[in-house]
Amino acid sequence: MVAATTRSVPEECIRLEDKEAGLDGFIVIHSTARGPAAGGCRFWSYDTPEAAMVDAMRLAEGMSYKNASAELPLGGGKAVLRRPAGEFDRRRLFEAFGRAVARLDGRYVTAEDVGTGLEDMENIAHATRHVAGRTARPGFAGGDPSPWTALGVFEAMKAAAAIRFGGSLAGARVAVQGVGNVGGRLARLLADEGARLVLADIDTQRAQALASELGAEVASIADIAGVTADVFAPCALGGALDEAVLGVLKAALVCGAANNQLATPEIAEVLRARDILYAPDYVVNAGGIINVAAEYLGESEADVRGRVVAIGPRTAGILEMARAEGLTSAFVADREAEAKMRPLCVA
Ligand code: NAD
């Protein structure tokens, strides 16, 4: 089952169990080739420990690709904790998790993910320093990663538009699916650039309010993927690109923040065959992890900006290579990331 969902075997899989604290889950260290395995802590309901482990392995592998692609001095890892069914003491649970992270002595660095937040990171920090996503300190990187993720997607979209349309995003029609923390900020950046926007969100009030502010149109969540647009930006949930969406998609470029946009790996080939340029998700949405990593590494905001802006040319390079070699951009992104999954040489 695990072999079917991941491409490679992780370095280490650590079972976490502390019944009194309600801790039940896994830390998976996929790769430490580039540095400490970094990746967030997911806190979610899983029916079985096996289901949590499979998810942790898949997500840890994904972090190795994302971190290597972003050229961070980090490997890939992930923690997945099963949310207790009944009442539980959240502080105690995350302190126990912090002790488990501490025992790994820096081989794994944790941060926020689905189901965890700032307060959990502060509780983890009672037990270990190998945690990021904490309160930002003046002069240092840290805090909310969403603006950086949005900036990275924006830079990637500008670079991809230059390749696909031979011009800028000014006047281009962009359909944004999901205007939450990242999608909302992306929409603002696009509006400033002169793009014409169509917005959709399950939270229709949120979409309406932003549309009024930016002079954008609103579409229903059922229609957004199929509206007439140059660019489709999935910024909601994973699996945004499936057979049904491809049946209605009119955009010639897909570039958005959502993780795991391809519902199945085969979708990448369908997009290529239809000459729809796909900017690989983990390449373009790395701004958040870049900011989290900078906090852990003690870097400045200027370092973060430099790395995030580099997402533009990196995306362009992958798209150009894919086109020249007749391959999918997803394949080329993976190939390039795998080539970087090796120890860094320090001069
Ligand atoms: P968010 O929860 O703030 O925003 C998501 C928005 O999508 C919400 O407004 C929600 O109402 C809306 N939504 C949900 N289902 C929808 C649907 N079917 N159609 C239209 N809208 C829908 O989340 P976010 O932090 O903005 O993240 C967005 C995506 O980007 C996620 O897939 C996330 O994993 C990914 N991502 C986020 C970051 C980050 O820094 N926040 C980093 C990397 C990747």
From TrEMBL:
Entry protein name: Amino acid dehydrogenase
Family: Belongs to the Glu/Leu/Phe/Val dehydrogenases family.
Pfam families per record: ELFV_dehydrog (PF00208), ELFV_dehydrog_N (PF02812)
Glutamate/phenylalanine/leucine/valine/L-tryptophan dehydrogenase C-terminal domain: residues covered: 143-343
Species of provenance: Novosphingobium organovorum
Keywords, comma-separated and alphabetical: NAD, Oxidoreductase
